[in-house]
Design brief:
The chain is an alpha/beta fold and 232 residues long. It contains 7 helices and 10 strands. The chain has a domain of 157 residues: Vaccinia Virus protein VP39 (Rossmann fold). The two termini are 23 Å apart. Belongs to the methyltransferase superfamily. tRNA (adenine-N(6)-)-methyltransferase family.
Length: 232
């Protein structure tokens, strides 16, 4: 059994194509939950992001949606075995998802490969390529399912993030918060965590380096993620 133990929950990942990653952990710790009551996790995978935000604010009403038949098994098991079994899990595509109440935060670690060569693993292709969920479809889902004061929080490779932000701005959304991430001090920015809003605000820009010069977790990364890692 493949699993990843955190301080307050465990992720079993026997079926999902995309396993627990540094991207997911730092994003789940970074996303702002201020003023949030209802969260939707699009493309939940193993359920990592849903469980992280629930740990941070247990009173949140969290819903998770996942299209993949195998990943849904991991997410369901992980939710049931966690302290927060009230997370609602939906097995369907977000393009046809409807909910009676609007969400004030939508989070996603979405597919990001566009027009690139695919491998032989269909499940992994679905998780990594935008065929099943394009950037425009994700933006449309946010506009349709969110409240007027809601935010959309995303993590993407840096170049893909610029494309996503440009498309979102064309749909009337505003970039209000971003964090540039590099793996080590000597490497360029490789990831962007960012939040979009329906209303303009002064942009808050941050930066995060995962490892220091000694190849140990940096002070900033440790401060961000220490509530989750079992040995940190």
């Amino acid at each position: 059994m493949t699993s990843f133990a955190f301080k307050q929950f465990k992720i079993d990942q026997n079926h999902a194509a995309m396993k627990v990653s540094t991207d997911g952990i730092m994003f789940g710790a970074w996303v702002s939950l201020r003023g949030t009551k209802r969260v939707l996790d699009i493309g939940a995978g193993t359920g990592l992001l849903s469980l992280m935000v629930k740990q941070r604010v247990p009173s949140l009403a969290v819903s998770a949606i996942e299209i993949d038949d195998l990943a849904i098994k991991d997410a369901r098991h992980n939710f049931e075995q966690s302290p927060w079994s009230d997370i609602k899990l939906y097995h369907q595509a977000v393009q046809g998802f409807e909910n009676g109440k609007k969400f004030d935060l939508i989070i996603s670690n979405p597919p990001y490969f566009q027009d690139s060569l695919k491998g032989n693993n269909t499940q992994r292709n679905t998780a990594r390529h935008t065929d099943s969920l394009s950037f425009s479809e994700l933006i449309e889902a946010f506009l349709r399912l969110s409240s007027e004061t809601a935010r959309l929080a995303i993590i993407l490779p840096y170049d893909g993030a610029q494309v996503f932000i440009e498309q979102a701005q064309c749909q009337g959304l505003y970039l209000v918060r971003q964090c540039e991430v590099n793996t080590t001090p000597s490497k360029p920015v490789s990831r962007l965590m960012f939040e979009l809003s329906k209303y303009a605000e002064p942009l808050k820009t941050e930066s995060l380096c995962i490892y220091d010069m000694s190849n140990q977790y940096s002070e900033l990364y440790t401060k961000l993620c220490r509530d989750f890692y079992l040995k940190m």
